[in-house]
Amino acid sequence: MAEERLQKIIAAAGIASRRKAEEMIVAGEVAVNGKVVKELGVKADPERDHIKVRGRLINAKLKHQEKIYILLNKPLGVLTSRSDPKNRPLVVDLVGPYRDKVHPVGRLDFNTEGLLLLTNDGDFTNLITGAKQAPKVYEVKVKGKPSEYQIAMLERGVTIDGKRTAPAVIRLIEESETNAWYRITLHEGRNQQIRKMFDHIGHSVIKLRRVAIGFLKNERLKPGEFRFLSEAEVKRFFRLGKNR
User: Fold this and answer.
1) With contact defined as beta carbons under 8 Å apart, do 142 and 206 qualify?
2) Which residues are catalytically annotated?
3) Domains of the chain, with CATH numbers?
4) Helical segments of 73-142, H only
5) Confidence (pTM)
């Protein structure tokens, strides 16, 4: 095997996404042949070099690894992570024997429910988090009734945390005297983006759920249930990625 960047090797081992792997490297949690590496440009050959992440050798994970692709309906009150110092419930706890074999693709907030992918395929993770070929669709209930002008402003993009959001598609589902439901399609995934968008116009989010990831939608999974992606579904995502 030829030399590859450490973050790509870590992702291929199913330990974390490339972005998270980069954070691990910078934090000094990765060592090659006994030497801690903190630079992102370092390359290694897993057939020749001993690579450890948080003290554990990962070379064996790269051999004969079965690729796993899981679609989970994440319930409320579950953390999108593989560990938590506060011992809160984790999404990986919901996938049984695959708990230590997969990582979440992107994230859903603790108080957000809906569709979430988990995998041990780093390339698939990068593909999905790229978002252009896998737009995410959400249903959101907000306090009060935003005006058409406010919704149009959110669709065009607003500045949050010093950066402008990408254009979005927002459609009204229903409304009452006190609140409104919208369906929102995003082509990017930023931390608590929808909550911050509606906070920006003075209408806080009451409920939020993700109902689609690309062509994965209308799923009948109950909260906490999961299924495996079919080979055809995985190939379809990669095919869309090549055509972007």
Assistant:
1) yes
2) 109
3) 4-62 (3.10.290.10), 69-130+222-242 (3.30.70.580), 136-213 (3.30.70.1560)
4) 122-129
5) 0.76
